[in-house]
Each structure stands twice: as structure tokens, then as C-alpha cells.
TrEMBL record:
This is Potassium channel family protein. SUPFAM superfamilies: Voltage-gated potassium channels. It holds the Pfam family Ion_trans_2. The lineage of its organism: Bacteria, Bacillati, Actinomycetota, Actinomycetes, Kitasatosporales. It is a multi-pass membrane protein. Keywords: Ion channel, Ion transport, Membrane, Transmembrane, Transmembrane helix, Transport. One of its GO terms (biological process) is action potential. Residues 131-203 form the Potassium channel domain. Its main location: membrane.
Amino acid sequence: MKDESAQARWELHTQRPLLALAVAFALAYAVPIVDSDASRSLTLTCTVVEWAVWGSFAADYLVRLVLARQRRDFVRTHWLDLCAVILPILQPLRLLRLVSTLMLVGRRARMASQIRLTTYVGGAVIGLLMFGSLAVLSVERDSPNGNIKTLGDAVWWSFTTMTTVGYGDHAPTTGLGRMLAVGLMLSGIALLGVVTANIAAWFISRFDKDDVEERRQTAAIEALTEEVRALRAEVAALSGGAPPGVSLPVPGATEEHSR
């Protein structure tokens, strides 16, 4: 329990700093792509920031592994985190650093109980749209046959691809660009399914809540009716001497009958 509490405290205390580092990574990744004429020193600085952010997430994974009570279980249940840590080491490409950092940020964000599902989905949509646009622009801008040359074209292509509309006016021509298109399409379908399921679950929970409240009110009315009947029987027994449960003649009805 001590190791688990230490791991939980570490995850709680590092949640916001890691998210801040993720924002720094986003800026460092975007600047050289948006500003194609950036100086060599600025590009080098952005690259260092990207590797530093990835290194921070990798160190976070190692610390959580050390603090885990059952390390084998931790590795088995957090295998996606391990893949994200190893991925850039195998091939130092900027795109792999992007993918691995997004994976690590997503895994840590889902650990935070204060982040609601709707907020997480909205952040995932914005993040995928932004990084997808930047990534496809970086690999397609210098392609001889490519038609995604500006950031506006890339954002439009990412939006139509994530929503699975696909107008076809802009399309990737390189292998990496097509891989990004596949990833965005699958991500868009998955996020649309999550949103649909969330809305359906909300309606079902509302209906269930209304049914439970209606059943509770019906049961309360029935119980109150039984109490009123019992009370009337006791009052009748005390006033007329009849035993409880025996109905007494209604005054007025007897007089009319005698007439």
C-alpha cells in the first residue's frame, strides 16, 4: 500500500507539469513547420525542446515503474506507455517523437479523475486536428506532386479527413502522408463513436433516473394509501365500536333507506 500511495502521489503531483511540457512540445513542434524560413538556431532549439519533453515523459514512466508495487503487472498494463518511450529511440524521426508524445500525454491525461470524458474528447479532437495538420504539412509541403502547401490547406485536409468527409481537393501523395491520413480517419471514427456512446449513455441514465423516481413516488403513494385506509378503520372502530376492518354504514344512507 505504501508503494501504491507513493505512485499515486507522484502521478498526482506530476500531472500538471507534464501537461505544461506537452504544451511546450506543441509549440516547439509547430514553430519550424509554420515558419519554414526559421533560423538554424531556432530550429535546433525546438528540436532540443522536443527531445527534452520526450525525455521527461520517459523519466516519468521509469519513476512510476520504480514506485509500482508489482512491476511486472505495471509493465503489462502500461505496455502502450513503454512502446511510446521506446519508439523514438528506434528511429529518431520528428514524426515518431510526435506520435510517442501524444500517446504519453493521452495516457497520463486519462489517469486524472478530474478530467471528464467530454473534456478529454474535445482536447483529443483539437490535438489531433492541430498535430495532424502540422505533420501532414511537414511531409507534403516539399513533395513535387503534393497539393498541401500551406497551413490552411493542411487544416482543411485534416478536418475533412477526421470527419471522414474527404472532399478530395487535397490529398497526401507521400507514404508518410498517407499513413497520417489513415491514422486521422481511424481516430475520427473512434472519437465519433465515443461521442455517440457518451450521448446515448447520458440519455439512458436520464431515462433510468426518471423511471426510478417514478417508481419511488408510486411506492410512496401506495404506502400512504394503505396508511390512510388503516387510519380510517381505526377511527371508525373507536367512534362506532365496530372492530377494525369492519366497514360502518355511511350516515344519511340509512335514513334515506328507512324513508
